[in-house]
Write a structure and sequence with these properties.
Elements: H1 3-15, H2 20-31, H3 34-65, H4 70-94, E1 105-106, E2 112-113, H5 121-130, H6 136-151, H7 158-183, H8 189-217
Antiparallel strand pairs: 1-2
């Protein structure tokens, strides 16, 4: 198979499941104005690509040489994801009922959407880091999946393969965010809350799984 196509297929397959990164994109796509939403998405793509490259080239060797790092990585990742998930669930619980019949308010870019208060730059950056570099699943999956893929690819084909992996991350993120931006004006506030709660539950569940894995290793 062509290495570019292979990289695209593997990258899309790894990005598609609903995990912390897609849950974060759901939050961004539903709550932020257009400019900030796409800026946050670009940050996620950049961090995701760097995680993929690191996992493919370095993390696999590191974990093989020092298996004891698995427990600290899982513990830190569990704590971060549980914190992020709890914050998502708390915000949906404490959100005030809007005055508009459909729950739509006007954001700073003129698009219909919920208020953007609380989405500081620090929170955007921390959220993107939490679902990429601070997410042990992303690092471990990159190490196992992309590391093995790189190992099985000819040296001359590696640049094209890596290009396919990077393009897959950008295509998936842009596609998901584009769909969210297209449909968010049609969602009533209650529906938005349930979508965000589902995202929060996913993040908490993944964090609990990491904690259980860390305890199991110990």
């Amino acid at each position: 198979m062509d290495p570019l196509v292979l990289g695209l297929l593997v990258g899309l397959a790894s990005a598609a499941p609903l995990g912390p990164q897609n849950a974060y994109l759901l939050q961004v796509g539903l709550q932020l104005p257009t400019t900030r939403a796409w800026g946050a998405a670009a940050l996620v793509v950049g961090l995701d690509v760097s995680v993929s490259l690191t996992g493919a080239l370095l993390a696999g060797r590191l974990l093989s040489a020092a298996p004891g790092l698995r427990v600290p990585a899982l513990t830190v990742g569990a704590a971060v994801l549980l914190l992020v998930g709890a914050q998502i669930l708390w915000r949906t619980r404490s959100r005030r009922r809007p005055r508009h019949l459909l729950g739509l308010t006007t954001t700073t870019d003129g698009a219909d959407g919920p208020p953007v208060s609380g989405w500081s730059r620090r929170r955007l950056v921390f959220g993107a880091l939490a679902v990429t570099w601070l997410n042990p699943s992303a690092l471990l999956d990159s190490s196992l999946l992309f590391g093995g893929l790189v190992a099985s690819t000819r040296l001359a084909d590696l640049p094209v393969l890596v290009l396919g992996l990077c393009a897959a991350s950008a295509l998936w993120t842009a596609g998901l965010l584009g769909v969210l931006r297209a449909v968010r004006a049609r969602l009533v506030e209650r529906a938005r809350c349930w979508v965000e709660r589902a995202a929060g539950v996913v993040v908490v569940a993944v964090g609990l799984r990491f904690a259980a894995q860390a305890v199991g290793v110990l």
